[in-house]
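Protein Entry — a single chain follows
Fields — amino acid sequence, structure tokens
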Amino acid sequence: MKKATYFIVSAATLAMGILLLIFSRDPLYIDGISQTLHGITIAEGVLFCLGGLVGLLYSFRPKYDAEGVMTNRPWYHSMMSIAAIFWGILLLVFNQLFTYNFYGSIGVSLILAGICQAIWISTAARPYGAAGWWYVVPFAAVAAGICDLTLSGDAASLASANSISCIVSGIVLILYGVNGFMTLNRRKRVQTEVTESVNKIAEEADRKKVG
């Protein structure tokens, strides 16, 4: 269920990134709220609620290491899941307000998404370690979110701020979605390598006992 949810979130994020680039100039020419950005804002809310709910449920499930020993999940898993759910609800309830100030809402979303993906990567690689470049995209998402939040949002430049944020966020969301699929493959590869290593150690121990 968790892998399926992560796959859906990655695919939806990739699609939203492409849409943001295609319709990045909508805020400059549409008098009012862009329906495309409005739909993306609602989709953000749904994805944050879905991902946060699944993450919260899994944070309460027992976790076992490669040797079958039960271990505790980090406390920040639950906290980030709750934060994601809360932000998703806000996006859904105040969707028009967040669409109108799209540069701000997408900025917060990117910061939360970047932190969540960094946590997912660290968990997937634990306790075997993760290469530093795995975290490039999550950190880029956080940086892009901060940049979005710094864009001017006064009435005169609101449309320009929303348009620029569409371009910046669109590029990062595409990278984020692709990185999500790559993370799933990396996790599968790491787990396979660990399983093979554990089996090899067990076989060597059995040979010593027989000898």
Summary: The chain has a mean pLDDT of 80. Residues 50 and 59 are 14 Å apart (CA to CA). Helices lie at 2-22, 26-29, 35-59, 75-93, 95-100, 102-125, 136-150, 158-210. The longest helix spans residues 158-210.
